[in-house]
Structures are given as C-alpha cells and as structure tokens.
Amino acid sequence: MDVQIVQAMVGVLEAKDLSTAAHTWRVVLYTRVLAQKAGVSGEIVHRLTHAAALHDVGKIEIPEAILQKPGPLTAAEYDVMKTHAALGHERLRRMQEDDPILLNLVRHHHERFDGRGYPDGLRGTDIPVVARYFAVVDTFDAMTSQRHYRHDVGPNAARRAIVELQAGAGTRYDGDAVAMFSELYQEGRVAPILDRFGDAAEIPTHDQLDRVHDFAARVLEA
User: Fold this and answer.
1) How many C-alpha atoms does 142 have within 13 Å on its Cβ side?
2) How many degrees, rounded to 5, is the angle at CA 219 between CA 210 and CA 145?
3) Is there a contact between 160 and 115 (Cβ–Cβ < 8 Å)?
4) Domains along the sequence of the chain with CATH
5) Is 43 exposed, middle or buried (0-12, 13-18, 19+ CB in 10 A)?
6) Would you report the helix, strand and coil content of the chain in percent, each value rounded to 5?
7) How confident is the model over 57-98, as pLDDT tens digits?
8) Residue 202: Cβ-neighbour burial (10 angstroms; 0-12, 13-18, 19+)
9) For residue 205, is pLDDT > 70?
10) Which of 38, 41, 54, 124 is at 20 to 30 A from 151, Cα to Cα?
11) Which of 190, 166, 192 is nearest to 177 (CA)?
12) How far apart are CA 134 and CA 149, in angstroms?
C-alpha cells in the first residue's frame, strides 16, 4: 500500500481516537523488532509496518461514544467494538488491497489460539502467522499503556504483561510468538520503545510513519 494512503488512514483514526497515536507507533516498532529477530526480509518488514499501522483501521466505523467511553464497555458495546476487525478487512478489500499480510493481520489479530477469538473463531495454526505474532504485540501494548478506562498502569506493567502472556501461551496466544517476544523483553529491546513512545511522551505525527525505520534505529541504538 502507498505510504501516503497509510498515513491518511492513520490520521483519520487518530482524529477519532486520540489514544491511537502512541499505540500505533509502539505496535509498529514492536512488530519491526520482532520481525527482525525472526529473520524476515526487509521487504516483508516494510509490509508488516503498514499492516501494524493499520491493524485497527476498522475502528473508523465504530461510534466515538464507544471508542472513547471512560469506563468498561457493556456486553452490547463490546459486541460492536469486536466488529472492527472484519470492518477493517472489508474496507481494505473495497480499496482493492490484496496484500495477504495486510489483510490477514487486520482481520485476524483478535483470534485466539484456542479458537475463542474473533471474527472467525480460527484456532491454532489456522490463524495466519502474522496475526498470531501480532496478537502478542497488541496485547502487550494494551497491558502496558493507558486506556480511557485505565489511567495508572504502574511501573511494573511490562514485567506483569510478560508473565500474563506466558501464562496464556498455547491457549490465548501462540507459544512460539510469546517465547520470541519474551526474549526481546529479556534482551532489553522492548523497554526503549515503551519509554520513548510512552503515553506521556511527545509522539511523532502520522505523516512521519514513513520514517519509522529511522525512529526504530535511534530508539534501539540509544
């Protein structure tokens, strides 16, 4: 996908949900370092960058009252929120996007390894590998960042998140994906991203997403 289209769509989503900006940068960077650790090619890393940036594009269709609700969602509201994965996939297909990395990550990043996720209830290795690995990234960021309904995650959030991910390996999450991300954490390659792009940090604007490789290099080499 053309980077200008990616930037425009991320900008629309950020305008609707202000918490999206920092989340987008972090999951993009986590995805890149995870892909690099897995030894994937530069071209695949580039496609994964765009897919990670657009993983929640379906939330453009979700009412702001639900996206920005200051408390927990009701069961009915959560059902609406869960439609964002399929809605994002449908939007991309209408745009004639055909990259399987992009389409699979957007549609399936909320599937669970035990088959209890959404939108399709896929199980185990039936879930596309990009979605299995990104689910770990996305969940880690959710556990370590502020939300409209949670403002204090505490100084030990990252360590607790890793413990929770490991507890869910093989049920909620792909065990290999959890193991690889846990190794990144132990190697100290996660903390610089969380620190530089934390909730209180000044976040680059969406039109700088094409420079993500520069930001990644500076953060990880600092």
Assistant:
1) 11
2) 90
3) no
4) 3-221 (1.10.3210.10)
5) exposed
6) 65, 0, 35
7) 999 999 999 998 888 999 999 999 999 999 999 999 999 999
8) exposed
9) no
10) 54
11) 166
12) 23
